[in-house]
Amino acid sequence: MQWEKFSQPRKSNYEKIYAALNTEGRIYLNRIAHEKLGRPAFVELLFDRRVNVIGIMPSTESKSSAIPVRDKQRQTSLGRVIYASDFCKHFNIRPKGNLGFHDVSIDTEGIMRLDLNQAVAIKK
């Protein structure tokens, strides 16, 4: 046999963009995701029904559709939380369990895309 060894550098979860949506309509962004958005204090939430994708874009407090980005309540976390239950109800986004988004991207317009079709069930 001529075995070839697979080698891939390990990435810490602290180095990846990650987001989650829980059953109560809270969107969690890890530190990296929040930084990639530009560390906004406020965001606007968007939804594309055709492809089932949530969009998050930086905003300012002065916009009527702006939602505050809060610190996560655990002191050890550098992540942020967006309270999006009204948004989820409006667009009938009702996950049966908590969802994790590992394939998070930011498009050329600066909108973070959370694809509900690619979300995975998580235990949190």
Poorly predicted regions are none
How much beta, percentage-wise?
25-35%
Indicate the radius of gyration in whole angstroms: 16 Å
Class from secondary-structure proportions? mainly beta
Could you give a short account of the major beta sheet? Answer: 10 strands, antiparallel
Count the E strands.
10
What is the molecular shape?
Answer: globular
Elements, N to C (H/E): EEHEEEEHEEEE
Strand order of the largest sheet: 8-9-4-3-5-6-2-1-7-10
- Mean pLDDT over the residues: 91
Distance between the termini: 44 Å
Helix run count: 2
Task: Indicate the percent of residues in helices.
Answer: under 10%
Question: How would you summarize this macromolecular structure in one to three sentences?
Answer:
This protein has 124 residues and is mostly beta strands. The protein has helices spanning 31-36, 85-90, and strands at 19-21, 26-29, 42-48, 53-59, 67-71, 80-83, 99-101, 105-106, 112-115, 120-121.
